[in-house]
Amino acid sequence: MATRSGNVGSEQTNAQEQMVAGSAWMTAGSIFSRILGAVYIIPWSIWFGTFFLQGNALYGKGYNIYSFFLIAAIAGVPSAIAKQVAHYNALNEYGISRKLYGRGLVIAIGTGIVIAALLFFGAPLFTGGDPHLVPVLHSLAWAILIIPTMSLTRGYFQGFQQMAPSAISQFVEQLARVIYMLVTAFLIMRVWKGSWVTAVSQSTLAAAIGALCGLLILGVYYWRRRRYFHSLVRQSDNALVVPAKQLYKEIIAQAVPFVVLGAGITIFQLIDQYTFAPIMHAAGNYSAAYLNDLFALFGVNANKIIMITISLASALAITVVPLLSEAYTRGNQQEISGQLTNAFLMFEFIMLPSALGMSAVARPLNIVFYGHAQEALGASVLAFSSYLSIILGLYTVVSALMQGISQNRRAVKYFLVGTVVKFVVQWPLVYFLGTFGPLVATGLGFLVTCYLIIHSLNYQFGINYVTIAKRTNGILLASLITFGLARIVVVLGGTFLGDSRVMSFIVVAVAALVGGYFYVYTTLRSRLADEVLGHRAAVIRHLLRIR
């Protein structure tokens, strides 16, 4: 019995270390990509000048539609592949994993072609009456031809717990995209004095340029590691024979729920995009341009920044799925319960200080990215959205947890309940709260979904709430003090340095350093980080010379 307990403890420790290592790579890739995807807006907004809010609204509307089509094109196949590859790898059936990747590639290429054609030729049907959206959607369709194959290959690497290729390709993809966006925006708007619609269209075409570069990076990684993959296939048990037809069925059965759940945030954004203006027209006599500006504030500007913190949760979610799938395949209930508890703790450890810290610096941060256009309202929306990001990040994690234990249908059902809540409260909240209405409605919808999923996970596997509550107290206290320190820096900075873009950047940087250092130092010194990150916390503590 003692030996068995030791084995279980060893398995849980190893799983936690895998989760931390994988999360580190995926978090780094996601956060650097998101930062790049947000920082470009500073020169971009300057070069667009008075057309910035209109251009950003058009960019955001195009990307919302594109994101939905992209999720349909990818069809959840990458995450499904990662899950199924991990499942067969746990059974030492690496040959089937390779066949699974090949069959998934056929599906990804086929759906990419079909969905790209649908978006390109059907663009006028999805504009909601805005003709400027047509060239934007045409340019985005090209990315859909490439991204499914790229995402599928990332899923294959993730199934082997190899997160570095995904993270690095993600960063390269974003870097190439941003460079193309900025070069074309500068040439069109400042050198050639061209149309802002043309500039936005080229900025969205950058998605295809970035995807191509990301795919090339993955190809290089696969080529370098091909002997390793081949050796695993040769050492497989080959005890299972899975026909191609069954592989296709497994991919599709696993992928469809990933489509719905993966598109969750995008679906809510599309609800806002198509209902906000009609509801506001009913509430008052507002011009279309003014409502476009408001939509840009909450649906694009704030969303672009909070996705930096939400990407942290997304990185964790991607890491958890194959690990949970392996534990579920082995039928190890105790390991599943431990991983669920670790996942929630890691989510809190990362998300709470990030979201509270962002809300503390909302005003200067908003000025850094967007200048003084609608400054007061923009800062308030960003602060509120920062709190909302905790719920959105939690949804990203818990939906991935349900998929990791093959509770796909139940997760979709709970998401649909949350969507109904969003629809029911959308009209009265937008009518009475205006710009904040869609955000409150989104928070309520996802909160219901998260509650239902967490309740289900606890009922089936048991979540160690005592451990979570104990750790949460320390994380929350450190996060609140971090928030307070950042706020003090913001108030003092605003008083003595002013609110220009450069001064605001200095204030944000100092606030982030002061608050971030306090949080890192406190959690490492108190050993709270050890209980979440494992032995790696000791390594970090040694590097930072904290006793």
TrEMBL record:
Query: Which InterPro entries does this UniProt record tie to the protein?
Result: PG_synth_SpoVB, Poly_Biosynth_Transport, Polysacc_synth
Record key words, sorted: Cell membrane, Membrane, Transmembrane, Transmembrane helix
Q: What organism, scientifically named, is this protein from? A: Levilactobacillus suantsaii
Entry membrane topology: Multi-pass membrane protein
Q: Name one GO cellular component term.
A: plasma membrane
Question: Where in or outside the cell?
Answer: Cell membrane
Q: What name does the UniProt record give this protein?
A: Polysaccharide biosynthesis protein
Q: Name one Pfam family in it.
A: Polysacc_synt
